[in-house]
Structure formats: C-alpha cells, structure tokens
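R.M. (postdoc): so does anyone remember the format we settled on? I'll just put the structure tokens first.
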C-alpha cells in the first residue's frame, strides 16, 4: 500500500468515525421528542421519513445520522 493510499484510508476512517447511524423505533410522539432533542443539540445530520412497522404494530421507525464529535 502506498503512502497516498494509507493517507486516504485514514482520512476515510476519520470521516466515518464522525457520525453515528441508527434506526429508532417507537410511537410518533416519542420519535418527535427524540428528534427535537437531537436537533437542539446540533447533532442531527439526517433523518429519514417515518416508516410504519407494518401489521398491527402502530410504531414507526426512522433512520438517523448523528454527529458524534
């Protein structure tokens, strides 16, 4: 591996380490409170549209990307 490739790999790893990605599941009211708190702290980078869990389950799931630094 060349020095340039090592430097690029290290930079990519550092960029990836700056974010935490997760799925959150719950009632829409609870998700709204969590998203509001994340937005107020400035950590919220991306949030997906709500998706219903399906069947008789009334919960929703959302994908979040949070700034970890």
């Amino acid at each position: 591996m060349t020095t340039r490739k090592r430097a690029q790999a290290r930079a990519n790893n550092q960029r990836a380490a700056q974010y935490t990605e997760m799925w959150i599941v719950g009632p829409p009211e609870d998700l709204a409170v969590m998203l509001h708190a994340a937005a107020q702290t400035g950590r919220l980078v991306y949030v997906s549209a709500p998706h219903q869990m399906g069947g008789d389950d009334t919960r929703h799931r959302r994908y979040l990307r949070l700034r970890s630094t």
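R.M.: ...and that's the designed sequence above, right after the tokens. Also worth knowing: The chain is about 40% helix and 40% strand. The chain has one domain: 19-67.
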